[in-house]
Write a structure and sequence with these properties.
The protein is an all-alpha fold. The chain has one domain: Hypothetical protein af1432 (Orthogonal Bundle), CATH 1.10.3210.10. 58% of the residues lie in helices and 0% in strands. It is built from 11 helices and no strands. It has helices at residues 5-13, 21-31, 34-53, 64-72, 88-102, 107-118, 131-142, 153-162, 168-182, 192-200, 208-214. The radius of gyration is 17 Å and the shape is globular.
């Protein structure tokens, strides 16, 4: 049994393999802050666990490669590579579409990933746009402590050992607020960025996102 454990762990944490997947991971790791890159990869692992918990099967109920692309690239808009004039979700979706198109993915698959990334901060909307959008949003939410029944303590420990949290919530807020402060068009009224700026500028200057993660199952630093 002991001899089998490494194989079980490798299978559990293994990322999909396609001609473009290693390149996408390398791009995210190079472009994003380490805490954000780790979060992006963890979100995919969590999303896959959540799908299994819900009885969903890869290739039957969702495309695992598109779920990988949407989760791993969902915060590319928080990198300098994709820091444009739109809200970070849309800048990220546009950058992801460009990246995936460059790797030869067909337009319908690129569009599906674009939508999942653009809607990942839109509760009540992403869930209505199909399994890819829903799993992307919920996998990301799992990294904030939601849907705890879908992951065991042992699984969570392996995920966090492979991809440490590194003060994720504070880092995310710092980057989102920093981008939007420099370019106000990135924080339209009622957007996530606008709300984070409002909360950061109001005593005690701790955002709801940071409080939520600090009180969650994972906490913020691990």
């Amino acid at each position: 049994m002991t001899d089998q454990l490494p194989c079980v762990e490798a299978k559990f944490l293994a990322l999909p393999t396609a001609p473009w997947t290693d390149s996408v991971v390398a791009l995210v790791v190079a472009a994003e802050a380490p805490a954000v890159a780790n979060h992006s990869i963890r979100s995919f692992v969590f999303a896959r666990l959540l799908a299994a918990h819900r009885g969903m099967e890869a290739h039957r109920d969702f495309d695992p490669l598109l779920l990988f692309a949407a989760c791993v690239l969902h915060d590319i808009g928080l990198s300098e590579r994709a820091n444009g004039s739109q809200r970070f979700e849309v800048d990220g979706a546009d950058a992801a579409a460009e990246i995936l198109t460059g790797h030869g993915l067909p337009a319908d698959e690129v569009d599906a990933v674009w939508l999942a990334i653009a809607l990942h901060t839109s509760p009540g909307i992403a869930e209505r746009r199909g399994p890819l959008c829903e799993l992307t949003r919920h996998g990301i939410a799992m990294d904030g402590g939601f849907f705890p029944d879908a992951v065991s303590d042992a699984q969570a420990a392996m995920i966090h050992a492979a991809y440490p949290r590194l003060s994720l919530a504070r880092t995310l807020v710092d980057v989102i607020v920093g981008q939007a402060t420099e370019r106000p068009n990135k924080a339209p009224m009622y957007s996530v960025a606008a709300e984070l700026i409002r909360e950061r500028s109001t005593p005690p200057h701790i955002t709801s996102l940071e409080q939520l993660v600090n009180e969650s199952r994972w906490r913020d630093v691990r």
